[in-house]
Design brief:
Strand content: 5-15%
Radius of gyration: 30 Å
Helix content: 55-70%
Number of domains: 4
Shape: globular
Structural class: alpha/beta
Largest sheet: 5 strands, mixed
CATH class of the largest domain: Alpha Beta
Strand order of the largest sheet: 3-2-1-4-5
Length: 525
């Protein structure tokens, strides 16, 4: 990684009332009840079981390290032990601190939260730091618990802010779709490899073998160039008709011309042909799953203010959904700098005396959020006029592309915060084009062949998420769209005419919308 923005100067340092994490400090609660009456439950989580202990604020062990199986009866027994210890040792307040371990800590966290206890989460890197200071050459469950307790006393036991269920669903669907895309890409690479084994050079007959209907049909029937030549033009036409694939005559002529001069395939060309067919069927299935996941994503995205990001040229439904899934509720971010800080979009720094060395991005960050922001930044540099000009200027000054993408990602973070958290109109050079939120959504629904009822509902939800000023601008665009559909034929205008009254009613409201809706049937074809 290369040097990112250097806005954090050595002289500027935040002023804290306490060292450590201010929102994890327990000092006020400890002072209120006394250290001997304040307890900490430390839990070191694993996959099937965990280990926990109970100590007071001074570090006196009240319940020795105990194994906790991840079962309901074991959770109930541990909670009963804690309540009994509170009564016998006159404890007036306590916190439960669970070490984050993938998803394995969540059953423990949910069980103690359901019991009404104050549950905190601690990062394993922090507990490791405190454990390593006391036991540099030893790592056991007991030393891990000691590190958790020490980190909690220093204010590193944090409260996970609750997410609304819709953001959790968006995150799961977005990650599921991203995983499918990666698997589909891998399948495409394997298909091209086997295609080159049995039909060398065949893929160069097409711009994209995966977008041409006939491209992967022919290898399924004819596994060698000699077989294609033997079938000839009539055989290829018959194959296309039998498979229900439309193909132009020039394409078949180009394929036959390639087969006449094609090099010899591998000796075992039959096996790559069979594998190619199996892999292609798997790819088609995954493409269908991707389409289905995108339909789920758009239905969830329109219910969040992140749908406003579609006003940015270059941001589509999928990218806006990934940003919503990784960022979560915007109310959890006080400023845009919190977003860049969570994503780790600032350089590592090593300063000692006159030496101040910065290179590369910080290692500890939310990698998924960083990946989505950098992906969006790369897309904006290609598809958004404002960022395209900006990035080209930086490139002309000799900036590294990675540095440029980090800069654009930082600016995107600030724009996202203002657009999603704000209630004013979108005023940024990147949004100079006419508003396209509802238009983008309409195109997305047409491409994915989403039924009319769902399309109308999603557009109404999206219109409700727009600020008042943007609703007025979108209203003018949709009025113009409504005027254009008069006299037109085809599937697109008919679908638009069917949903316009409902969406305009959402944007306008009142008697004006009812008047437009009453006239819609007479004006549409």
């Amino acid at each position: 990684m290369i040097a990112a923005t250097r806005r954090r100067s050595a002289a500027s340092s935040p002023a804290f009332d306490h060292l450590g994490k201010p929102h994890g400090i327990l000092s006020p609660r400890v002072r209120a009840v006394g250290p001997e009456h304040f307890a900490i439950v430390a839990v070191d989580c694993a996959k099937a079981s965990s280990k926990w202990l109970l100590v007071d604020f001074y570090g006196k062990v009240l319940i020795a390290p105990t194994v906790l199986d991840h079962r309901r009866d074991a959770f109930d027994h541990a909670i009963a032990q804690i309540r009994q210890a509170m009564a016998s040792h006159q404890l007036k307040d306590l916190v439960v601190v669970v070490e984050r371990t993938g998803r394995y800590h969540q059953p423990v966290q949910r069980a103690f939260t359901a019991a009404g206890l104050d549950v905190r989460v601690i990062h394993p890197m922090i507990s490791r730091h405190f454990r390593h200071a006391a036991h540099p050459d030893e790592k056991t469950d007991a030393t891990d618990l000691e590190g958790i307790v020490q980190a909690t006393c220093n204010g590193y036991g944090l409260v996970d802010p609750p997410w609304e269920p819709i953001y959790c669903q968006i995150q799961l669907w977005a990650r599921y779709r991203r995983d499918l895309v990666q698997k589909s890409t891998q399948l495409c690479c394997q298909i091209l490899e086997h295609l080159e084994s049995c039909l060398p050079g065949y893929a160069r007959c097409f711009d994209d073998v995966f977008k041409s209907g006939i491209a992967l049909v022919i290898p399924g029937a004819y596994g060698t160039p000699q077989a294609i030549l033997a079938a000839g033009f009539p055989g290829l036409v018959e194959l296309a008709g039998r498979q229900g694939v439309r193909v132009q005559q020039s394409t078949l002529i180009r394929i036959l011309a390639w087969a006449q001069d094609a090099p010899s395939p591998d000796r075992e060309a039959i096996l790559p042909q069979r594998l190619l067919g199996d892999l292609n069927r798997d790819r088609i299935t995954k493409e269908e799953y991707i389409q289905a996941s995108e339909r789920e994503l758009v239905a969830l995205l329109v219910q969040t203010p992140y749908v406003r990001l579609l006003a940015l040229p270059g941001i589509n439904v999928v990218l806006a959904s990934e940003l919503a899934g990784e960022l979560g509720p915007i109310v959890h971010y006080a400023t845009a700098r919190v977003i860049t800080g969570r994503a780790g979009l600032f350089p590592r720094r090593h300063q000692s005396g006159p030496v101040d060395y910065r290179r590369g991005l910080v290692c500890q960050a939310n990698r998924r959020l960083r990946q989505v922001l950098l992906l969006a930044a790369e897309t904006l540099c290609r598809c958004n006029n404002h960022f395209q000009v900006l990035s080209q200027r930086w490139f002309s000054h000799g900036k590294d592309p990675r540095d440029v993408y980090v800069r654009v990602a930082g600016r995107l973070s600030r724009i996202t915060f203002q657009m999603v958290a704000g209630s004013a109109a979108f005023r940024h050079p990147a949004c100079q084009e006419p508003p396209a939120v509802l238009e983008k959504l309409m195109e997305f629904h047409d491409e994915h062949e989403i039924n009319l009822t769902t399309t109308r509902t999603n557009l109404q939800h999206a219109a409700a998420q727009l600020p008042g000023a943007e609703q007025a601008r979108e209203r003018e665009v949709w009025k113009a769209q409504r005027a254009e559909i008069r006299g037109k034929r085809g599937r697109g205008p008919k679908r638009l005419a069917a949903i316009l009254p409902a969406v305009l009613r959402q944007l306008l409201g009142g008697e004006l919308a009812e008047l437009i809706e009453s006239k819609a049937s007479g004006e549409t074809p």
